[in-house]
Write the structure tokens for this entry.
Amino acid sequence: MVFETSSLLLDSPHRRFNALTGEWVFVSPHRNRRPWQGRVEPAPAASRPQFDPQCYLCPGNVRANGEHNPQYSSTYVFTNDFPTFLPEAVEQDATQHPLLQAHVQAGTCRVVCFSPRHDLTLAEMPATDIRAVVDTWAGQVTELGQRWRWVEVFENKGELMGCSNPHPHGQIWASDFIPTEPLKELTQQQEELKRTNVALEKQALELEDKAKLLEEQNRKVEVKNRATGSKELMSPSAALDLLSK
Ligand SMILES: [Zn+2]
């Protein structure tokens, strides 16, 4: 099997198969070369205070619902004051017509403060503190998974993505239904397993390993011949052999 990137994928409009959803996606790579004359976002402010008295996520501050955050020193989880889902939603017959269907969705939404420090991002935190965040995510998924059918951990990063506060934090949504995109992926993976008896993720990992191997085999380094002054392209192992002589 050949994994080299063909010019079709780099230069020509084409459709690509998304194996996770079973859908074909239109890709138009040549349009990346068009000039951009639209809006250019300014870079975020270079520095923020470690504590912002106006921030509703900083330790000790008052949130929109009047509650005080504790003086937390690691991660801190609370139920979102403005949740997308409510746990006690009751099914009602909202159907007026087959084309106008609606169902109640029950669930809960939590906020995870990654750090008490207002000025950090997850990537800037020490590894031990990042580990605490990952452990919190795992604990939350386990706990919420006891009651809810679907638990999703995510972070809206930056103002453009709808993040309402620069304090390092993420969200957890748990619901009594599987959302549309994950449901497609689940169905596709079940069908692939039935068809090939090999999990889709395993196939993807094997493909990735083969692609990395090929990339390594095709990698060349430039070596200058001291005697002649000429430059040659060779594999890294050939270059090492030459240099060790
Ligand atoms: Zn803050």
In short: Residues 52, 55, 57-58, 118, 167 surround zinc ion (CB under 6 Å). The chain has a mean pLDDT of 87. DSSP finds five helices and eight strands in the chain.
